[in-house]
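Dear colleague,

Thank you for sharing your sequence with our group. We've completed the structure prediction you requested, and as agreed, I am returning the results in plain text so they can be pasted directly into your records. Please verify that the sequence below matches your submission; if there's any discrepancy, let me know and we will rerun it promptly.
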Amino acid sequence: MELENESETLSRYLYRLSDVKISFVDALLNKNYKEARWWFFEYYYSLNNDCDKAWQLLFQVYYDYFAIHYPKMETYIMKRYKMWKYGEKVEDFGGNIGDWNFIDIPTRDIWWPICVIKNLCTRKICGFDVFVIRQLMDSGDCKPKTYRFSKSGEKVKEDRKWLYDFKYDKALFPLLWAMHERDWPTICYWIVNDKFKDKDCELYENIIHYLKFVEKYELDIDAGVKKWKQYRMMYKNISHVILTLIVFCFKYPIDEGMPGTKRITEMVDTFNKMSMDEENVVFSVKEKEDTPDQFITPDGLVLQMIYITPPRSDIKEVLADNVCGSRLWEILAEKRKYGISSKNVCFKNGVVSTSQLLTDLRENWREKCYHCPLWNVRFRRFNAEMVDGKIIFPDEDKEESWNETYNLEPDEQPLETQLKSVVGEGEILKQNNYRRWFIRKSVIDASTLLYDAEFENGFPIM
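Please find the predicted structure tokens below.
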């Protein structure tokens, strides 16, 4: 089923789904691996059979915060997504053709997202440029500049001759010229314009062509288009991928070099100080597409960011969090391991009064759960439906049976357990300052966004 409003829908253990997502990103960017993993799977299991959306969140986080420094990690993530979604048949050939068989690797193996989360947690955030500009792009409030281009027969301005020399489609002129001018609101406007809705391959190819032949970046157009055709079906927000490519190229001008030159010392320090359980770390660099990102020092020394394979015991921990062996009224106190992130209030629908949140948890939780895919299945098992905003069972016996099976009794929980759904009032005041700053910087002053160091001071949220 489709989620109508994640800020009005409660999760597996009765958090707002919107709070779950932001808490995951906050924990991930602050390198809290176990907490990030826990929030991710709170979202994942709440989605039931629609858990592909949890992968979409992973893709979004990667492109927002990591892709600029770790472009090769895109292949690493996409491969693990494919393994999760489709499984794999590994050939097991015997001596005789009649003995040949295949070993099935099952689909939806939670091992694959665990690997991605672990490796994102061990990498440095590459800044908030893509995140900030994506907010502008997704807002729908982009106000593009109107550029005038020569009509047939008119003399073409010298600085725009390349538009005509390369025979670009005239529909692309505004976007390509906005890229040339570093006009971010106009770039965002045209990337998501309906004119290119069903022409994303053509759009991507023309952007790469522009970057290669006009901006002079060393890009392989054929390889880029081939990869695009493979990956465009995996991450649904293709505009986000295109935006990331543009930001990546423009943030690191050719004459300044790519990441790994000026910042190499900082990168190495971060990598060396990463906390890992060394007994359980396995380095995975065997496959060609898993080749780790490289950083080359001015002296020519090649340093690699190695992909880490977490211990298999992580699977058991995730599965244990999803198994409810306790009595119903004890489940929330046992399973609600973390309180939501205080950064939630920076975002739309994030500021809700403590009293309203607690009322929803104590009194309205069944109605708030109904549109959660996991809980919806549980209601339908007993033929319950939503009628005029209320859960209605066909008879008292069905309702009683449902309560005996699923009633978590949130109103009877210790206050400490209930307050894990709430951000303190003091935090709300503090985070509102971030929100006002964000709105001012991302909407009013978008032209100066491409790298603002202030975003590194406490604003790491999706």
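Summary note from our side: The beta strands are 88-92, 101-105, 282-283, 293-296, 302-305, 308-309, 385-387, 390-392.

Kind regards,
the structure core
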